[in-house]
Amino acid sequence: MSRVGIVGTGWVGSSVAISTLQRGIATELLLHDVRGAIAEGEAMDLGQGAPFYPPASVRATELDEMRACDAVVVTAGRGGRPGETRLDLLKDNAATARRIGETLRGFGGIIVVVTNPVDVLTSVMTAAAGLPPARVIGTGTMLDTARLRQMLGRELGVDPRSVHAQVVGEHGDSEVVLWEGARAGGLRLRDWTGWSAAKEERIAAEVRTAAYEIIRRKGATNHAIGLVTASLLAWMLRGDRRILTVTRVQEGAAGIRDVALSLPAIVGRQGATEVLEPEMSTDERARLDRSAQILREALAPIRDAAFRGPE
């Protein structure tokens, strides 16, 4: 029996909610939004679809009640605008993340951060909630990794589930595709007939700009991240110990400390408890270090406000 809370019922929160219900992850789903009527309407709408998903109750609630949840998903905040980077969102969304984190301070479950810029906000949330880094997880580059595998599957003419490749670092413009360790069907990608550096450059650019292309057309990205988040919840709450490219405050893996970014981690009931150091070329490691530095610089202007205790 799992209780899941979702904070923020806009495009992304609603997609996370319906994906979570259809997967049968939660027996109780709690929704909260600063626009209370919106959360109530979403709960009513989702509840009326009960004959079409495994048994679960859905209701709107106040944020404080979510302290009783096994996991709380944070999607609250404004979304990206056309031409805007994820880091451009920081000023608007950091204060929201801090307020939510302080309300959940000492919470006994796991916080999953989805709101962008997800890496910096995961750092903010970890400090505000006063939780160990393992128990504040951002979706990070799980979506970028999914996009990479989908595009590689299309390029190779194989099922994306047969592709093993990862994106690490920032969920954003400084993300790093790990071509050195990329494989399909156990064969190094660079050993596939016809593979080339030009293909790597093109595909990496497509992955990096995928969200911008969607936002330019429809104004937001929501369905894929909803599926990503629901899968993360399912695997985490079942204790599957899946290896996922999630973001959390790092404590020394790959030589990185005190900044949240994505590396492969073993995720289970206690959160992202073990961070792994993937195979990387010298260039990829240098680019990962650069990604970490970009995130440190983004965090610096808000560090004092974000990391002080509750007022």
Strand content: 15-25%
Q: Terminal Cα separation, in Å?
A: 35 Å
Oligomer: single chain
Rg estimate, integer Å: 19 Å
Work out the number of β strands: 14
Spatial arrangement of strands, main beta sheet: 3-2-1-4-5-6
Low-confidence stretches: none
Helix-strand topology string: EHEHEEHEHEHEEEEEHHEEEHH
Q: Overall pLDDT, averaged?
A: 93
User: Which structural class do the helices and strands define?
Assistant: alpha/beta
> Helical proportion?
40-55%
Overall geometry = globular
Q: Helix count, per DSSP?
A: 9
Biggest sheet details: 6 strands, parallel
Tell me the layout of helices and strands.
Blueprint: E1 3-7, H1 11-23, E2 28-32, H2 36-47, E3 57-60, E4 71-74, H3 90-103, E5 110-113, H4 118-129, E6 136-138, H5 142-156, E7 163-164, E8 167-168, E9 176-177, E10 183-184, E11 187-188, H6 197-218, H7 223-237, E12 242-251, E13 257-268, E14 271-275, H8 282-299, H9 303-307
Parallel strand pairs: 1-2, 1-4, 2-3, 4-5, 5-6
Antiparallel strand pairs: 7-10, 8-9, 10-11, 12-13, 13-14
Helix pairs in contact: 1-7, 3-4, 4-8, 5-6
